[in-house]
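We close this part of the discussion by returning to an individual protein. The encoding preserves chain order, so positions in sequence and tokens coincide. The sequence in question and its structure tokens are set out directly beneath this paragraph:

===
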Amino acid sequence: MSEKELNRKYKSMLLLNAKEGYDGRGKGVDVYTCDKCGKQIFTRYKDKGVTPFTIACREKGCCGTMMHRTTIHESEATERNATVINWVRPSLEWVNKHRKKGRDGLVEHILQGGLMMENEI
């Protein structure tokens, strides 16, 4: 995909997402749990868009899969003293950098309205 085509698709995604995209903002904190080690992470939508149902486990040395198991209220996350990671939309510049690295699956995820964890950008 050329840079020009990426620019066009990114702008188109922004327009479509503004009108019809999923909006999880303000709907609580999503809890992902690893099927292998049991580690949990907590996430929330900072931007409007979609997130993966499963992600690779973030625990060092674990090769398990973290699955979105439940959504809790913000107050429950606070009571648990949970660190909450925001889901955000990467900038066009960030996406273009990863296009140049050949990360086609990641680029396609973003162009379909997908979000990334803020600490990965």
